[in-house]
Amino acid sequence: MTLRDKPFERTMHAMLWTVRPPTWEQMRNWTRGATGARPGLGGVSRILIRLVMFPSALAVAASGSVPMFVGVIAFWAIVTVLWQSSRLVALLYQSPELPVYAHLPVPPESIFALQRRAFMWNSIWVLLDFWILYGVLAYRVGFGVDSLGMALMMGAIQWWVTLAGVTGLLAFFPKLRFEGLVLFSPLLLGGVAFLVLPYVFWNLAGWFTAAAPWIPPVGWIIRLLGADQRGGFVADFIPGLALGALLTVFPLAQRRLRAAYSPPEPIQLEANLSGAAQITRAFIKSPPGQLVVAVLCRLARIRPWRKSAPTPVTGATDDTTADQYAPIRAAIRTRKFLAGYDWRRSGWCERLAARFLSPEDRLAAEFMGGGKPAYTRVVIIGGLCALFPGAFVVVFPNWGNFALPFFWMLPMVFANVGSGWIKDGKAGAKLMRVGGQATSLHSVYPIRFWSLVRLNILRGFLTITALCLGATVSLLAIRFSRLRQPAIWSGFQGGTSTEILWISGELWRLVFLVYAALPVFAIMPCSRGSNDIHSPGRFLAWTAILVTILGTAVWLLCAGSILTTVGAGTLFAGVSAGSLWLYGRAYNRNGFDLIRKASRGDPGS
Amino acid sequence: MRIELRKVLKRYQSQRVLNEVSLEIEPGQIVALLGPNGAGKTTLLRCLAGIVAPDQGEVRFDGQIFHRDRMDLRRRFWFMPDFPFVFDHWSMVQHAGMVLRLYHADGPGIEETFLELLREFEVLSLAEKPFSALSRGERYKGALAALIAADPEVWLVDEPFASGMDPIGIGAFKRRARDAIKRGRTVIYSTQIVEAAQGFSDRVCIIYRGEIMAFDSIANLRDHSLPPDSVLEGIFNLLREEPLP
To answer: How far apart (Å, rounded) are the C-alpha atoms in residues B219 and B197?
Structure first.
């Protein structure tokens, strides 16, 4: 079922507005009253933010220093996330359309998709806000006329990251009163205060300037523009890490939010919106209304609210009825269903993998991939993601610095738009809910732990290699385009993270780190449905291992000399492989259960 | 295959779900694990299947300690949860193909066995439809048909009579199980339906609060001077008062 069809939405809006205007207004007011939102609060905050705070901040920033302006941007990024969160809450739970949807045969996930899409378009103002803010910042840093185009790209990034932040906040902290936070939080009060008390402002600006590197993507963007002059690898690393972490959580948060969403019950709404809802319901139940609903359903190709029970078909019990199933019988008798996946006629990665995998591992790969290992698909999509920045730079050489976000963003975007890329090859690790418990699908079948690990490592290796090869080509393209147009690029040297990475070799250390961490990553799909950290002892052991891994990783990345690098790298790889060995031993020796208590985000059975 | 549990203890937090359970099951019999809700029946089956790890004690198959890496032992039994673990986008035929290969049971003639099972469970018409389009009982039948076709030595079935199967499916399951024990297979299933256990078992294992209260044939359990037509029900009533000796 989709509500995304344009004709459906047009007709839906037309239908909503055919309800008499007074009724519509009543409904809007009653909805606000029913859901506990204070009437007019949203309007006040919007007016305050758009007409007072924003121009004031701009005016103050225009006369202040660059670090102060960075603080203003950081402050604004936080307020924007809270503000947009309150708007998404309103759309999902307090919108006047909801009582109407409640009377249509529309499942909650479709309402969620519709309201979220409306939110995305409404929140496009964030792009405009940050276009202006980053434009002023870039101009102040010295990018001249180019600031306008650069800031548009940065505004788009900020918009996307704001969506990620909003989704994360709503998914993991659903009980926060975001609108109240926007208006009454110390942030805003401080913001108001700094407009009237200069010395307070300076202190607050200092705090926000210090916090800016940790606020994605502000930290990364100010680094890119050269507005943050702090040096060192950690200062380079934190903004990217924070941005990457947020974008990684984004698809998870979105799934969690979608799974947890249930629109307000029609009964609850009707109790408070008796007048408007009854009129709406009466309209929908009337012959013209039903006609409209029928047309809507046809336009939107709506499936019924409840999945219809499959038509009971009596099986073949005698020869007469058996004949109609002759094709099925013939198909089974060909034994094709026992042939399995044809590794020789599949993609080149599968053919390559088949050389290294044992027959048992290949069978496990088929199972874990839900029938298709899809290794080539993983490599192609990963490579294309990483190649995109290079292609972007070749086409738009003046905009080279903006290529770097794609290294972080594109895989996440691909994953988020539902390509299923991230899930490929892991269908067998799908969680199955059994009562109040959850376990992985593979746990009831005879599949060896080390087969699962080998497959996870293989898949991880292919993905990382594809990303690295694509990234290398991209970096070469970026470098080549710089050499070709040195005059244009000279102004960008200050904050060019790609250049820093290229020269210092830290990128290559990072690549080594990711390869060496593969054994630990390979544990994750096996661990997902188990209670391996259930007991305090095992939890502490895992914490110790992870701390060691993290510590050696940081040591490796920060190592100054070759010898230290080799030592740290060897230790890291050793700890990673040792952790896998220990885990495998515990798994194989029945050290923990392959079933655990179900958590809220787990899918249903 | 001979099955032994030796002082198996399983705790969930502080609660002992299985309290030093010891049990020996000889091959060629149908064993019903009977007990009220929360007695530990499913946990016992999961322990046997290696999904749940005992905190103490051990599980032995043919005298050999069972660990998850013992694939040779693992392929000699199957475990069927009360909700079948299948890929939604797969059909019964695809699922059977994978299961039979995982159990190394894809030899010549298996397709006829599988066809016969589909007919017997009356799901031949649904054999090529994805599981997502089937009802719970139909999914269960499809998954069960594949596992029965694999024909390992031990069947571990969780609540088959509360699986959503219709009487046709339940009948087919009982017939197949009886055929299997004639070939020396062992069928262990859990249930809380007294009549089901009474009518379909060679031995009944009564579990209560993680302890085995009785493990014997229905005939021997009658010695508890209870009315013969409601032996197990009588034992259930006794459980409410005090454990059996």
So the answer is: 13
> Which residues 34-93 in chain B show a CB within 8 A of chain A?
46, 49-54, 67-69, 71, 74-75, 78-83, 85-87, 89-90, 93
Facing B124 at nearest CB: one of A325, A366, A449: A325
**DSSP codes joined into one string, A38-59:** PTTHHHHHHHIIIIIIHHHHHH
**Secondary-structure breakdown of chain A: helix, strand, coil percentages, each rounded to the nearest 5:** 75, 0, 20
The closest of A126, A212, A204 to A166, measured between CA atoms, is: A126
What confidence tens digit (pLDDT) does each residue in A62-91 have?
666 777 778 778 888 888 888 888 888 888
Q: Please indicate if any CB of chain B lies within 8 Å of the CB of A173.
A: no
B42 CB contacts (<8 Å, ≥6 apart)? B82, B158, B159, B190
Whether residue B115 and residue A329 make contact (CB cut-off 8 A), yes or no, is yes
CA–CA min distance B100, chain A (Å): 8
Q: What is the pLDDT of residues A117-157, one digit of tens each?
A: 888 888 888 888 888 888 888 888 887 777 777 788 888 88
Domains of chain B plus CATH, in order, are 25-54+68-76+153-245 (3.40.50.300), 86-152 (no CATH)
Q: Which two tokens stand for residue B16?
A: 């002992």
Among candidates A524, A496, A535, A511, which has minimal Cα distance to A429? A524
pTM: 0.60
Distance between CA atoms of residues B82 and B77, nearest Å: 16
Q: How far is A533 from chain B (nearest CA, A)?
A: 13
Chain B hits for A322, Cβ within 8 Å:
119, 124
Tell which of A320, A337, A445, A530 to mutate to test the B interface (max B CBs under 10 Å).
Answer: A337
